[in-house]
């Protein structure tokens, strides 16, 4: 391991419970090394691990532990990333050599059912959706085409879920591109994606206070959302798994999409967010969806796991999806 790998692995191991650490020591050293303290255990694990990749893929190194490490370091990955993806990102961050070869060995060594309990749970809950052409997510001038990939979706639950997930991916990709620290070209994000009478209901919760605000009109709503990324340098990292996106259709045609995730600013993890969108088709532009209503809650709290809608009180969810 290089110096960055050793330091990073040490920091990760320091967050493992003592009993788990002892068990991992026995596994790595094949019970040939006896340790009496946490410090000795960590040193033994680092000394006798063949590589950082070989260490990180072990069952005792949970996916959520690695995700939390990245969050604490201000390194953004999708909350739906599996353990393999997170490990690969860690290796790139640490400047590990021959990553492709290491990840190939990782795949070969992994059993058909994942050796990680957390990874298995993730795969079990993961929803496979059809591939969406990237051009279908790019709005055209004067119209909101962010749902064009879902125009022909039927009213069944799977198609409705696909519509919501497609929209959420498009929305946060475009909104985040306005952040100058992202290092990417800003994509079009303007009032044309909103109905003229669009409304934004905003709730910001900190340790000592809650602030509410409400804005109406496509220009004001668009401008306020842009402030978060352009001026406040926020980065929205949505949970795009099924437990992070809820979609339902109202009888009058509005599609309600609720998304949760984490918020970041450069090297800081700031908290979590919940955002609801009320989408309505615009018959003037091939029935593409535009945003009629959005509710955004920003909560300044620390999290050590992937945010999920099931973690929220039922009453809070009902308030968010109410139209």
Automatic annotation (TrEMBL):
Protein name: NTF2 domain-containing protein
Species assigned in the record: Mytilus edulis (Blue mussel)
